[in-house]
UniProtKB/TrEMBL annotation:
<dbReference type="GO" id="GO:0005829">
    <property type="term" value="C:cytosol"/>
</dbReference>
<dbReference type="GO" id="GO:0005802">
    <property type="term" value="C:trans-Golgi network"/>
</dbReference>
<comment type="function">
    <text>Positive regulator of amino acid starvation-induced autophagy.</text>
</comment>
<keyword id="KW-0333">Golgi apparatus</keyword>
<keyword id="KW-0963">Cytoplasm</keyword>
<keyword id="KW-0812">Transmembrane</keyword>
<keyword id="KW-0175">Coiled coil</keyword>
<comment type="subunit">
    <text>Homodimer. Interacts with ARL1, ARL2 and ARL3. Directly interacts with FEZ1 and UVRAG. The interaction with UVRAG is reduced by amino acid starvation, but the complex is stabilized in the presence of FEZ1. Interacts with NRBF2.</text>
</comment>
<comment type="similarity">
    <text>Belongs to the SCOC family.</text>
</comment>
<keyword id="KW-1133">Transmembrane helix</keyword>
<protein>
    <recommendedName>
        <fullName>Short coiled-coil protein</fullName>
    </recommendedName>
</protein>
<feature type="transmembrane region" description="Helical">
    <location>
        <begin position="92"/>
        <end position="117"/>
    </location>
</feature>
<keyword id="KW-0472">Membrane</keyword>
<dbReference type="Pfam" id="PF10224">
    <property type="entry name" value="DUF2205"/>
</dbReference>
<dbReference type="InterPro" id="IPR019357">
    <property type="entry name" value="SCOC"/>
</dbReference>
<dbReference type="GO" id="GO:0000139">
    <property type="term" value="C:Golgi membrane"/>
</dbReference>
């Protein structure tokens, strides 16, 4: 014969079910949050690439301006051979390219680092889900 359940037993079962549902909801939200962030990354990547193209264009204009200024200015005119002047201009252009590269790496890191963090968060959330299963 079955024993009748009391209100206290039912309340305990309801509380346990509520905690279980709440825990699962939290885990689902922890998994979904990095996924939404991951979905946002292509948009952020596109914005970074657009900014990079804009900066490259601006740097090209500045490089051309610097080269024209150096060609027209008597300060940069040398009594040495033309090749030394050419190397001086190439050195300035090299530093400009190095600055461009540094800027590009900085822009790319703005996308790669969040992607790594999101991947790590997804991995950790999956591990927690497996532990609770």
């Amino acid at each position: 014969m079955m024993e009748p359940t009391t209100n206290i037993d039912m309340d305990a079962v309801d509380a346990e079910n509520h905690l279980e549902v709440e825990g699962k909801t939290q885990l689902i939200n922890q998994v979904l949050e990095p996924q939404h962030t991951l979905q946002d990354l292509p948009v952020r990547g596109d914005a970074v690439m657009e900014e990079n193209l804009k900066l490259k264009s601006e740097n090209q204009v500045l490089r051309q301006y610097t080269e024209n200024f150096m060609s027209a200015s008597s300060v940069f005119q040398t009594t040495d051979t033309k090749s030394k002047r050419k190397y001086r201009i190439e050195a300035l252009l090299f530093y400009g390219i190095a600055a461009d590269l540094s800027l590009y790496v900085g822009q790319i890191s703005k996308v790669i680092v969040p992607l790594f963090v999101v991947s790590l968060n997804i991995y950790e959330a999956n591990v927690r889900c497996r532990q609770h299963s």
